[in-house]
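Q: I have 212 residues here and want to know how they pack in 3D. Can you give me a structure?
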Amino acid sequence: MSTEMDTTQRLVSAFKRQKCWLIAPLAEQINYSIPSARRFLAKIGYYSSFTHNGRWYTLASIPRFKQDGLWFHKKVGFSRDGSLTRTLIRMTEQSPMGLSAEQIGEKLQCRCHAVLVKLYREGRLERQKHGRSYIYLAADAKTASAQRLAIPKAHTARLPAEMAVLVLVEFIRTPEVKIHQLTKTISLRTGVLIKSEQVQMLFEQHGLKKKL
């Protein structure tokens, strides 16, 4: 009969062969029931995925989390915070200008709109309407107030690619021009109304130091 140490070694060996496991195949690998496999995982230390409804497991020693606290193995996502709920709250609280569901979904590579709505209804996040979307904010009133002030600039719609090219070409031709003048020139030339904030955001994306 195998000892607990033998089982732990088999578990570690399984994760050396494969970084992430579903619980049923993992239990089969170590020849134990699913509850026992979870018990051994808890003793060693593990993360469950915030994607795929938390069905994937990895050992706590495996992930190399980036600065944003996330680690992906193929399309399976793990968070230093553990659950999707805690990850959403932490990301939203740390954002200087709040985050839309689309921004969060792009970052986490999973749909999380329903969870965001639930957190808002529970009072664990705040939100504010901006255009056609909601911007999710921290529950803390002071933090949310600062985030609200930053929303208009941060969530201004990006310029379409063809308009961005025209703006950058015009800037190269006349680098001394002010942003509001540049905006007016392009709007008159194309007949498409663009905002100075959109041009400002474009410059920031490209590391150009032109300010409103």
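Q: Anything worth noting?
A: The CA atoms of residues 99 and 106 lie 11 Å apart. The first strand starts at residue 21 and ends at 22.
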